[in-house]
Amino acid sequence: MCEVCEKPDTKYRCPKCYIRYCSLDCYKIHSCEPKPMPPPPKLPKSKRKPRPNKKYDGGDDDVELLKQHQLDSLDCPEMRELLCNPHLRAILKKINKSGDAELALEEHYEEPLVKEFVEQCLKLTGTDHTT
Question: Three-state DSSP class for 55?
Fold first, then answer.
């Protein structure tokens, strides 16, 4: 649904505030004042701490952790842009602090911003989420 005129058809999303809109007219009507955080300084790869590639044993399933090159692929402008959204950062902090991150993620997954973030992570890491 267009968040400006409330028509059911939306084709676009504002790259700054992520509201959905249906036309150029609606885009021009809406005003957003994003307050993005400056991106953190990028450390040279030699100063990054190596992450172990081991099995996660916190749940019922044996889930493989991402390999280093997959984690490195997440350090990109697309992810930085998504993470500039304070609402998304608040949700991710809540998920991280929960006792059951998997359950907390499921509770928030239907939010378009969270879904977009997860899908972008999967795309960048080459992880198939359908299996």
Answer: strand
SS3 content of the chain, % helix, strand, coil (to 5): 45, 5, 50
Cβ proximity of 127 and 120 under 8 Å: no
pTM of the complete model: 0.50
What pLDDT sits at residue 20? 83
Q: Over the stretch 72-109, which tens digit does the pLDDT of each residue have?
A: 888 888 888 888 888 999 999 988 888 888 888 888 88
The structure tokens 């350090």 sit at 75
How many C-beta atoms lie closer than 10 Å to residue 3's C-beta? Answer: 16
DSSP helix/strand/coil, 25: helix
